[in-house]
Amino acid sequence: MARLPGDFRHFRILLTAGGFTAGRSFGVEVSDLAAQAAVPDSIDARVAEALDWVAERAEPDTVAAPARLALGLGDARTEDMFAATLPVIEECWDCADFALVPLLWGRIWFGHLMSGPLRARVEAAVLGYR
To answer: For the whole model, what pTM was predicted?
Structure first.
């Protein structure tokens, strides 16, 4: 279980035949009950625990990246999470809107923690979507 920590994980499957490649992403929820501690008493402590869990252990995507920014982690790891997801939005892939919403929230609330080039690319992706 340590190699596959609890979270909603995405798996990308590609099949290639005769020069044609088709792909599909699958989502799987993995529960890591052993890693869960006692539930904090206060709502603030519960929010802090959830935010920390998502920021440090979640799938590295536009859900984990804004969580990291909320904790003040505007570092290369966070920027890489955003950058890896941007092509999905820029190219208007199916279900890109699911990545777009947290990306937009990340830009609105924590854009000051993004580098200038990333912030500009996020803005272009949001404004150019569909």
So the answer is: 0.73
